[in-house]
Design goal:
single chain; 90 residues; alpha+beta; five-stranded antiparallel β-sheet; 3 helices
Amino acid sequence: MIIQTLSAKFLIESSSDCDGCLMVYSDNAEQLQRLFGSSVHHSLTFSDMPFLTKTCKQDFAHTLILLVKEVDYSNFPLTPDNLQAVTHLS
């Protein structure tokens, strides 16, 4: 899974050495630390995302909730095209 915010990109993969764990790679060590609160390590796996941490799926779920709460929804105005797309979803 790839998540992109205004200040960082994150790549999330399952961890091969820990059941129920995820590896989170990022291009921004500060944002990785802020969101996951774990120790940040350097990774040689992805040159464009040199920082990584390991987290459990439950902590990752809490981080996703935090990210959703941080969205400034005023940046997504309702337009006629958006309204038409939303009405087709229901």
